[in-house]
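Narrative of accomplishments. A recurring question from our advisory board has been how the design workflow behaves on a single, concrete structure rather than in aggregate. To address it, we present the structure tokens for one chain from the evaluation set, followed by the sequence designed for it. No filtering or post-editing was applied between the two.
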């Protein structure tokens, strides 16, 4: 009797979770796909191949690639520093790395406006040298880098802490240099965590809206990323084109999800084989 009651409760909880996931995840994806194709395949392809949409896609990929590459380098260096060395201010450094998690992306965008805009002490120099940062592509890249800064560091730190320092110290006593230790000892142990963190960072960079919206200036064909382009189309009541362009982000999100699951499966398989 008790087992039957527990089984009934279990099925109720599973059903509630499945219904919630369907309403919050599956249904929106279906509605986006249906709305994107409402006027037919020709209208769908016209929205995707429209010059402003192509430029927005290119800019989104450009900002994402640069942000992920730079954050990967920073994440590896900062995680190595925080886990392999003891120094004064270590806790403060970790707190500063987490700052983008605590700050609203809109506030981050305003920070770059204040730092590089007309109110900045740097503005006369930037203007004299014809360097455009805010309302230009560099500002979008900087904003994307800022909001995705902690992802790789925070994914690597637990793995590096669990790994410890013994292997690196043993390699150092055998005469190996810092780069050799990192390449031959540290990197093989963190490769799956690094790949997983890169995937998360990529997903976050592709969908960034708040900070980029503040620093971009919404200049069509120049500083609009895909999320900003979708917003403009929707505000113009061009719903079919908005959902068609949104479907690109949906497809990218699904692809990232598949890759993430493959990485998790491979990492788990590698861990089981090691045991």
């Amino acid at each position: 009797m008790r087992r039957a009651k527990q089984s009934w409760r279990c099925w109720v909880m599973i059903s509630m979770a499945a219904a919630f996931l369907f309403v919050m995840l599956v249904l929106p994806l279906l509605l986006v796909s249906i709305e994107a194709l409402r006027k037919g395949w020709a209208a769908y392809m016209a929205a995707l191949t429209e010059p402003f949409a192509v430029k927005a896609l290119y800019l989104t990929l450009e900002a994402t690639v640069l942000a992920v590459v730079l954050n990967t380098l920073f994440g590896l260096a900062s995680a190595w520093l925080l886990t392999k060395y003891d120094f004064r201010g270590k806790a403060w450094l970790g707190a500063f790395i987490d700052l983008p998690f605590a700050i609203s992306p809109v506030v981050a965008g305003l920070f770059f406006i204040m730092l590089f805009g007309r109110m900045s002490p740097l503005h006369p120099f930037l203007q004299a040298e014809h360097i455009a940062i805010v309302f230009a592509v560099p500002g979008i890249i900087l904003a994307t880098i800022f909001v995705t800064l902690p992802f790789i560091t925070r994914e690597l730190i637990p793995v590096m802490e669990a790994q410890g320092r013994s292997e690196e110290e043993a390699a150092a006593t055998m005469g190996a240099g810092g780069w050799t230790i990192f390449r031959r000892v540290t990197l093989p142990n963190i490769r799956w965590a690094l790949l997983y963190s890169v995937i998360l960072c990529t997903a976050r960079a592709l969908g960034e809206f708040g900070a980029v919206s503040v620093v971009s200036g919404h200049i069509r064909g120049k500083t609009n990323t895909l999320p900003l382009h979708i917003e403009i189309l929707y505000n113009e009541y061009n719903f079919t084109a908005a959902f068609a362009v949104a479907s690109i982000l949906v497809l990218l999100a699904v692809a990232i999800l598949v890759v993430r699951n493959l990485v998790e499966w491979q990492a788990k398989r590698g861990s089981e084989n090691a045991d």
